[in-house]
Amino acid sequence: MTSSASPYPIDGATPEQQAAIDALASQFLLTDERLGAIIKEFRRRMEEGLASDGKVLKMIPSYVTRRPAGTETGSYYAIDLGGTNLRVLKVTLDGRGGVATEHQKFTLTEEAKNRTLFDFIAQSVETFLDDRNLRPTGQEPPIPMGFTFSYPVRQTSINSGTLVQWTKGLNVPGCVGRDVVRLLQDALLRLGLRVRIVALVNDTVGTLLSAAYSDPSSQMGIIFGTGTNAAYYEDIVNVSKWKGANPASNEMVLNMEWGAFDSDDFAFLPFTPHDIKLDRKSLNPRKQAYEKMISGMYLGEIARNIVLWMADQRLLLNGCSSEVLNAMWSVDTSYLSSAVLDDSPDLTEIQQVIEKTLDIPTSTLVDRRILKTIAILVGERAARLSAVGVVATITKRPELLAGPVSIGIDGSMYEHYPNFEDILSATVSRFLPEDQFKNIRFSLAKDGSGVGAAIIAMLAAQ
Predict the structure, then answer these.
(1) For a Cys-Cys bond, which of 120, 128, 136, 168 suits 112, CB 3.0-4.6 Å?
(2) Is residue 203 among the annotated active site residues?
(3) What's the CA angle centered on 409, arms 266 and 66, to 5 degrees?
(4) Does the annotation count 87 as an active-site position?
(5) pLDDT tens, 203-212?
(6) Is the CB of residue 65 less than 8 Å from the CB of residue 252?
(7) Cβ(189)–Cβ(181) under 8 Å?
(8) b/e map of 65-83 (b: 16 or more CB within 10 Å)?
(9) What's the pLDDT tens digit per position in 320-372?
(10) Looking at 62, 80, 119, 150, which residue is catalytic?
């Protein structure tokens, strides 16, 4: 017996089950009015970060002040350091906005993560160049390389920045407060490698530049993946905290660090008890509040909290749990993806996840329908909230919306999560006049962290 007024009627649900789903829907389905208020606050926080350092949205100047034309040719190099892997890339630009890449992946050893990181990077660069007979001799000019470094740095020029702290499992002593480019350059010199690090790049800035080479109208680069962040071209006169000389282009790419939005006062984002529980038990409580509502690393955990909340009331899985389901992070966001996509009559894909992966002995069809609804609600809220940052940022320079504006996006949520792209686009359209929205194009910018770094190295070396 289900209420016809419910936005998510569950066929076969008891009134109590339906009431619980309706309560969830009222928390997770956000009205345009609610989103509009969050957008307004997001913009206020952007302005605050443009005016001074140390704010919730950091709005970090990247020192990238030019746009690629898309006609440049030649081969450029980059180093892309992630949490578990390091890649060295050769990126060849075809002069028509297209790129070809050749890369080699190196897995960071425990010793590299805790002691010898920069020597490990230098040795990997040496291996890459030697294997391809690319090592410059004494007579040849040094190879310029971009360096994507996805850890918190205080950037001081296009090719220098001091490490603020290690994250993501790296902990190399003696590096905090020092220039990471200098540390890498010294390690390259110790091997006698004629390589010059010409650009220190944040992966989101790389995503924007990678998009800009294939489409010069690119204005924003965004990562919607395991985590989230964005970068965009800002008019330098709007960056009142900038004390350097004004660039010839009068523009600067800013790394927004937008995942931190609302982390200081938890006042604007739609926190539910399930979000608060996740935050409290996370490795970084009261940080990255926006990221925790929209990113792949966290959505499965939000769903797990909801499942346990319902099971504890005996409204789901007959009140059963399991060791797997009781463990934090045991529900991967990919399980939610497959639940949303499961259209089989018996929801067999969801049954597999419940009974095999999560080790719950049995499930009813109603249980599976409820699980699918939870996955839809969590994913839809993530996509609609993702639009908040897009609208606040893209309308920051309304003069650009008179012509075509491209937004380059990388990351697993955008690329693989069902309906994410459609809901994101539809939500953005509700906050822009039709004549502006029709000029916006979302595009997948694959591998911005590698390709973008090589393109920035090309701009920096010119």
Answers:
(1) 120
(2) yes
(3) 100
(4) yes
(5) 899 999 999 9
(6) yes
(7) no
(8) bbbbebebeeebbbbbbbe
(9) 999 999 999 999 999 999 999 999 999 999 999 999 999 999 999 999 999 99
(10) 150
Residue 3 pLDDT greater than 50, yes or no: no
Q: What is the pLDDT of residue 4?
A: 54
Contact yes or no for 252/240 (Cβ under 8 A): no
First-to-last alpha carbon distance for the chain, in angstroms, is 70
Question: What percentage of residues in the chain have a pLDDT greater than 90?
Answer: 86
Query: Using one digit for the tens of pLDDT, what is the confidence trace for 264-279?
Result: 989 999 999 999 999 9
∠ CA(256), CA(176), CA(109), 5° rounding?
Answer: 95
Known catalytic membership, residue 52: no
Q: Phi and psi of 51, rounded to 5°?
A: -85, -35
pLDDT at res. 171: 83
Of 229, 195, 218, 198, which is closest to residue 454 (Cα–Cα)? 198
Kindly report the length of the chain: 462
Distance between CA atoms of residues 49 and 51, nearest Å:
5
| 180-190 vs 117-131: helix crossing angle, rounded to 10 | 50
Mean pLDDT, range 295-301, rounded to an integer: 95
Token pair for residue 354? 């419940």
Largest CA distance in the chain: 82
CA separation, residue 440 to residues 403, 406, 428, 432, 436 (Å): 9, 6, 10, 10, 7
Whole-number pLDDT of residue 152: 81
Active-site option among 80, 179, 203, 410? 203
